[in-house]
Fold these 2 entries.
Entry 1:
Amino acid sequence: MIRNLVIAIVLIAAGFGLYTVMQDEPATTPTVAVEPVAAESTTPKVGMIDDERIKNATSEPGNWLSYGHGYEEQRFSLLEQVNKDSVSKLGLAWFKDMQSNRALESTPIVVDNMMFLTTAWSRVYALSAITGEEIWSYDPKVPGAWARKACCDVVNRGAAVYKGRVYVASLDGRLIALDAATGEEVWQINTLIDRDADYTITGAPRVANGKVFIGNGGAEYGVRGYVTAYDADTGEQVWRFYTVPGDPSKPFESPTMEMAAETWKGGEWWKLGGGGTVWNSIVYDPEFDQLYIGVGNGSPWARDIRSPGGGDNLFLSSIVALDADTGTYKWHYQTTPKDNWDYTAVQDMVLADLEVDGVDRKVLMQAPKNGFFYVLDRSNGELLRANKYVTATWATHVDMDTGRPVEDPAYDYSDETKWILPGPLGGHNWQAMAFDEKRRLAFIPAMENPLSYSMDEEWKNTGVYKHIVGGWNTGIELGNIMQVMAEGGTPPKVRGYLKAFDPITGKEKWAVEQIHHWNGGTLATEGGLVFQGNSLGEVKAYDSDTGDVLWSYNAFTSFLAPPITYQIDDVQYVAILAGTGGGDLFGGESNHLASTTYGNFGKLLVFKLDGTAELPQPTALNRSIPVQPASDASAEDIARGENVYHSTCAVCHGLMARSSGVVPDLRMTNELRNGLYKEIVLDGILAGTGMASFADLLDENDVEKVQAYVIHRANEDRAAAAAAAED
Ligand code: CA
């Protein structure tokens, strides 16, 4: 152990290559401000955001007051200085290096002249919204080892600002209130029912009526989902709503849980967690004083393991309306009864007033992972529309009489492998869609990315499902994924789109196909524009009516975060965070990804008309794979290593040991690190960077086999590169 400590210290002192970069040091570099601005407007003013202001957010388009702009979460701005005619003059006003190489997913909040945003590891920054000057920053000091509990990167999607405070939830499950003027901590509380369980928080809290609402993630690992409301003043718990029932031999928390338990049959789901985590969308509706929560997938994914006796498994994959003051259940709509595919309904929800079949309705809209776009009457949850917005093969249609999807038996994977669309990334993920009410169009970052679904082989062979504490528990076969993919036959093509979708007709107005599937959220404006950053590293402005590209800027950094816009002293700004990762680390290397080519150096970019700031030109990474250590591993050893790698390592380090450039590419492992595999994987000498010990899941033998597989893969790709160079 002392030897390992010494090694760790030596490595850290030596500035140890990629791993040290991965530490995501807190930002210290000042922003590049490009032009002097009047001192008066740059003096930080901390505007008092309250319920009324968020409710009337559209009446002050100069600000961006809450996660989705206002309580409706339409991500639509009435600003129009930047419009179809002027957008060609849009240029960089300033940028800030966020000292991060993990995904940046945050929506900044802008009030008066201050901007509040979050970065990886749940850090918070308060900046001048005019110059980018840092006013304060706050680091909740999330333990690096907590990264192991995060299915989808150490990300954070944003803060809430309310009555002079900034609220942020940390990856390790704390809710923290900061003084908006100084960044001083006012209070922090633990939101987790069990800190040993694999919970994480990546979502933005929402605020209303003096309460802060927050959920959590962790369904892949096996946890029970819930949402909690806290007193914004004191941090005291006001109410908690569980999304799935607990152990039925114990008293239920509420009659609602008793009702939900009747839809779970035959298994011991409470031992597997059940899932249903609320990791992204929570929307407050002032018109009905309701809170809508988007509920996630089942844990494990495969329903035959989770609930072998059948049943819909409430409230998995559902939109649930709660009384915002008491947390009492009001209604629900389940998008995917008996979820079997990781079809979360946690995607962002948009509230709007729309005429539907001649009747004015207050609607809620969502494009969840399952590929259908839903329009509900939010007064009662009545289903008004359900149309496919992408290719979805698991179900033929939604029966509008019953409100239920009709599954296609041709895609039943209980006995044989099936390529199914959408896959676990969904037809649309957390990357927010924007909604233009006048045009009646939702602008969706859509995907068609299939998965070869196949039941867990051990369960198939023995009938016993082994729940792995601290690992992924999907119930579908991941270890032998390469063989499973081959068994599934020809996969459907992977595609990415930006789609303008009419929720009432259920038809696309236009669609732009994109080169890579994993792109950013969207912003729509009165200027007739839709803004989006993509995985190639470009931010683009599209014509809202036609999808024509009117402006494009190459930032050489892949995007996921949604852009926002604001206006101060008659200058309209468009701001967006760059930096990829998130849920598609598994997808790995791609020659199209800016992160693969240039690395993943997170930054905040702010544009205005006639902006003249320039980003430093990046240099392409040296991607040649180093010479590997000699290995006498047998084919069986390598096959065993491949299985362990894909069960345990691939979700972060990428399919076939090819990383997207966000976390270290193991094929690039140098001689020194190749000599420290066991110290890294078992002793956890790099835990501080997020690479915690896996000694609870793997032994020395496993690690040797994984290393043999990675060396084998590195040699294969070296040989392929050499052959290509000779051609
Ligand atoms: Ca999931």
Entry 2:
Amino acid sequence: MSDCRPIPVILDGDPGHDDAIAWTLARASSRLRILAVTSCCGNQTIEKTTYNALRVCTLIGLDAPVAKGCPHPLMGPVMNAPSVHGESGLDGPALPEPDRALSKLSAVELMAQVLRASDEPVTIVATGPETNVAALLLAHPELKEKIARISVMGGGISHGNWTPAAEFNILVDPEAAQIVFSSGIPILMAGLDVTEQALILPEDFTRIRALGSHVSSIVSQWLEFFYIFHRSIGYAGAPMHDPCAVLALTDPDLFRTERMSVRIETAGQYCRGMTVGDRTGRPGSVPNAEVLLGLDRAAFADRLVDAMRFYGEVAQ
Ligand code: BDR
Ligand code: CA
């Protein structure tokens, strides 16, 4: 008999347009139960992503504690992405001011508290650099068994986006990613192989806008912002990187996956931050990750549009 209970999750990310859309999808899904939200330093500084996290949770009515993450990667320098997400980290439509206070706990301590209190293992959805998750594993190794899975947006088996070899989230903190990927906790990896197929087109955000709710209007503007930027650098649409890490949990039927060993390059003159997937099946190549490699784009877009009905719909 299949287990229909919602999956308890912690959302850890650096909103960020696609993080915000991922959280909007998570909030709308009856298959997830969101226990906490934590910000990480990535698309913008920790101050900005934390403020954005509070504003997004306010917008979508996400009722879970929000905690501020680590201010910088474990070892390397802070690296942000204003060219993609703007100076605020979430440029575009005006958002409501936060209607809640930040948790007094740090992200790591909030995650630890939630894991300790949960009577079943919790899934972490990590859509930014993996600094907080690695810091949690270092500080509280005894809580590993309370983590069911880590659904990561990061890396790419075939290529990178910030360097030829490395994707942004992994490049920002390769040491953290190395800790997470070698932790023994099951990893679900949504890398560029799949997220660059998860393209949203104008016809899709027009359908979302037509739903007529406040949230769908904001989401369609985030999508348009993301689309315009990505078209300017040669993409055919807006790649929904972070939503794949949520939909991989709620709608696994959308994806084609393969289990393989994935290691993180932490040194290397040209390849720091690379996710090295071993598909040779040679002895010693023990799979540690289920890697998303393919999806049906049209079905993915339909699922995204449908999910937005959760926030209301005006009669057409
Ligand atoms: C990742 O980098 C960020 O800019 C996005 O939010 C996503 O998590 C894609 O490389
Ligand atoms: Ca992100």
